[in-house]
Input
Amino acid sequence: MFALVDCNNFYVSCERVFNQKLEGRPVIVLSNNDGCAVARSNEAKALGIKMGAPLFSLKELIKQHSIVALSSNYALYGDMSNRVMTLLREFSPSVEVYSIDEAFIQMNGLAGQWESLSLLGKTIRQRVKMWTGLPVCVGMAPTKTLAKIANHLAKKRSEFQGVCDLSALSEAERCAYFCSLDVGEVWGVGRRIAQHLHNMRIDTVEDLRNANTQLIRSRFGVVMERTVCELQGMPCLALEEMTPPKQQIISSRSFGSMVCSYDELREAVASYLLRAAEKMRAQESICCAVHVFIETNRFRVNDPQYANGVTIPLTEATADSRRLVAAALYGLKRIFKAGYYYKRAGVILMQLSPAAMRQSTLFGHASIQDDVIMQTVDSINKRFGRSAITLASAGVHHGWHMLAERRSPCYTTQWDDVPAAR
DNA sequence: TCTGGGGTCCTAGGACCC
DNA sequence: TCTGGGGTCCTAGGACCC
Output
């Protein structure tokens, strides 16, 4: 048995833990650069605000209903997420952190300690609420795909009160619920495949569950076939407790304002690279290639458009920021064209491998000293804040920096922002 | 004025090998 | 009349997830 624990309206709920005034009001949290709504309170959903709706299209609605729109505060959400995951591990050692706001728990062996699975689910729900202030829902079932559906029911159907054990339902009840859910609700069925399935008259979760697996495989491939098997109760996806190291690391941002000068673009690319390289060193990897890309604002259809990217292979795998920045800026020079307004840039560190298995080249430069320098820079930045030590090429003014005009304080990660109890 | 960011997996097709 | 068979590796593109 798997349980899926998923926080409700996670970003909004994090904000509410520290700001009581947000309770009961429509609240949305915006994507980077204050662009789109990426989290919505139930009140905001009730007003019809869609996931990903651009902020400018909501201006009227926001004024009309006094909706609170906040910039995203990932320092806060990441820390709250860690608290929830730590708490879940007290229930079971087998926890897969699937995303910032949800985790799968393997329940095997736990059933004996609890009167019923649903009591365990309720306890998880209560304890997370009490210890972190965050509301969660729990779905339980014999496969991960079914646990996802159980969680969906726990959230949407009030009769479950936040906890749904699919295996406790009668076959008739289960069937009725599955018939009421659109096939697009299934984990692994996105927009394109949902449309394709509808064309085949596979409309509900129940329809997909009863579909011919061979036909599904021939039309959609092995991934969708597994999904159907999982819906039938046959586990195809295991719990993944160990997160494998990332195979690539991306760092990119939209600019807060349009950028047309090469110098500004260079600063941005160098800054993004430093962040990506720091992440790469944190997972003890090195990379063999750096990809740089830049693009204009594709939404301004009347502006001249240009987007390009280039991959720069490295002669020797490295995690040294100085070498990586040099490669990225060399790439940028090759793709930069003057006369355009750029809106976004980014870098991708590719072909990652474990640093411990570095293969030197005959005339290579890698030295222990370089590693020590990078380690030192990382530990200083960790202690004194990001960019306490940086490269000059990353600049200091950052006029292109993304917008975050309504960001809440870092209540749990900055001493100066810790709320006072009076 | 104004539309996010960061990932994974699978497949098809091309290049190449013997 | 008429030109094999079996592989690997890499990449781009398409799908999905949050």
Summary: Residues 38, 98-102, 187-193, 220-221, 223 of chain A lie near DNA strand C (CB under 10 Å from a C1'). Residues 278 and 413 of chain A are 19 Å apart (CA to CA).
